[in-house]
């Protein structure tokens, strides 16, 4: 390996056998440092190395010499650990979200910064950067979307700060960072609590009646099975409170029709597998008839395609016998397709896609509808949280806060009784007369 000394032996320029570029190394600030000059000529490499060395010495003299692992190294370490440690506990989509935020936004901004130099002020600079450069094309994004015309949403920035926090925690565990900086957003008060999109009782009735009419009258025969599935999906979700992913994971063997000991009604006992692992749910009585319809509905069969039918007619062949009907088995899923497009088209047709605040309604809104309706009927909030596999705090924060039915007027409209002045005057007169009689004695 060819080596050349510069600056009185304090700086060396060398070239590895497998590289055409010259490298530089020097000891500055008590640490051996290396630098690639990206030059193939020794003269040009020597000039670049001397500039690099002088810059390092100047930074060391004023106390701003950067040292330690960079944010990029901490981010790489986090990505190596996160997917392995959380395997089975976090969805692959959530893990990919961390990787995407790091690649597109966080690493390009913090990448070369030493992790111990990442302060609360630098995090604030990142927020300002994201709020002022959203209209510019991002060279680190692989998508072909046009730049956005609105600043990133509060939830978007929140998720990016969460990813940043996880990287900093990784650095702290490895001893690269002594303490975590303050990541809270200054100058802003607590965000107002807004309710999640749901269907009021009138809107819910409008939704399921439109779905029923479409499934029975308006849809063509080829799409009838899908329309009937969407209709039953709406009723099933609004009477069980399942999350959409929990409903899509549900198999027929996970559901049982039982007689409830407390009410004597037939209900569904559901073994739920989803966001919170394995849990249990007891449905409303209306969900039983929906489940029986799903059991009795034959699965769609694959008939001959249009191309096969045209070829058969050209060749003069006979039509194949109609395929035998198959009914759901215990290991089949209740809702094998999500039917997102059909559900959204239904909402658009009846004008319920957006709520009054402009928030889009999705399949998740049916879960929110279940929780709100149970609260409106006076159900115990703890039992609702337990049945929906969530917390009382989440229900109070996102559901109960905007429902007028949760306010008990008998405990609010309390009036202090007014004293009886007539009785008070009679008592005073009696006392006065008694005193006068005593005086006479």
From TrEMBL:
Instruction: Report residue spans for region: Disordered.
Output: 299-330
Q: Name one GO biological process term.
A: DNA integration
* Ranges annotated as spanning the membrane: none
**Domain (Tyr recombinase) ranges:** 194-415
The residue stretches assigned to a coiled coil in this entry are none
Record-linked InterPro entries: DNA_brk_join_enz, Integrase-like_cat_sf, Integrase_catalytic, Integrase_recombinase_N, Tyrosine_recombinase_XerCD
Q: Which UniProt keywords apply?
A: DNA integration, DNA recombination, DNA-binding
GO molecular function term, any single one:
DNA binding
Indicate whether DNA-binding appears among the record's keywords.
yes
Q: Which family does it belong to?
A: Belongs to the 'phage' integrase family.
Do you know which PANTHER family this protein is assigned to?
Answer: INTEGRASE_RECOMBINASE PROTEIN MJ0367-RELATED, PHAGE INTEGRASE-RELATED
Q: What is this protein called?
A: Tyr recombinase domain-containing protein
